Amino acid sequence: MAEQERMIEAMLFASATPLDTREMAARMPHGCDPAEALVHLRKRYEGRGVNLVKVGDGWAMRTAPDLGYLMRREVVETRKLSRAAIETLAIIAYHQPVTRAEIEEIRGVSVSRGTVDQLLEMEWIRFGRRKMTPGRPVTFVVTEGFLDHFGLESARDLPGLKELRAAGLLDNRPPPGGLGQPGEGDEDEGAPGQNELFED
Amino acid sequence: MAEQERMIEAMLFASATPLDTREMAARMPHGCDPAEALVHLRKRYEGRGVNLVKVGDGWAMRTAPDLGYLMRREVVETRKLSRAAIETLAIIAYHQPVTRAEIEEIRGVSVSRGTVDQLLEMEWIRFGRRKMTPGRPVTFVVTEGFLDHFGLESARDLPGLKELRAAGLLDNRPPPGGLGQPGEGDEDEGAPGQNELFED
Amino acid sequence: MAENDFDDGARPVPLAERRAAEALIVDVDGFEGPLDLLLTLSRTQKVDLRRISVLHLAQQYLAFVERAKALRLELAADYLVMAAWLAFLKSRLLLPPDPTEEGPSGEELAAHLAFQLERLQAMRDCAARLMGRDRLGRDFFARGLPEDVTRRRETRYTATLLDLMQAYARIRTRDEFRPFVMDRDAIFTMEQALERLRGLIGFAGAWTDIVSYLPEGFSGDPARRRSATASTFAAALELVKEGSAELRQSGIFAPLELRRKD
Question: Which of A5, A41, B120, B187 has the maximum number of C-beta atoms within 10 A of its C-beta?
Answer without folding.
Answer: A41
